[in-house]
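ok trying this again, last paste got cut off
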Amino acid sequence: MRTSILIVLLSVVSLVLFAQAKPHISFTSTTYDYGDVAVKSNGDCRFSFKNTGTTPLVLNEVITSCGCTAVDWPKKPILSGDTASIVVKYDTRRAGNFNKSVIVKSNADNTPVTLTIKGNVLPKK
């Protein structure tokens, strides 16, 4: 009887541990502040992240909040412990304050993650 209880207990623990074996996406920062930038200046920024989970991380979709923002993101799986980055390109041709979001959807246990870019494009002098 003790052996049966031990086997059942070990089986349950194994199932719980296996069910928790997922990737986890950890960003260095989820906000990028451009500050004041000139019109038509470089609007690129980079969000670095690491897969701190135990299985490969796959980014399924990266969605911008408007057409003035474009993204470049890894299409291949990121292995456990590896790092990668998402490049966000904001169109700085229009003057004024901006606050935009980028939603990252993945197979991670903490999906989705929202990234934010903000700043002020100065008017042309």
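PB: full thing came through this time. Residues 54 and 114 are 22 Å apart (CA to CA).
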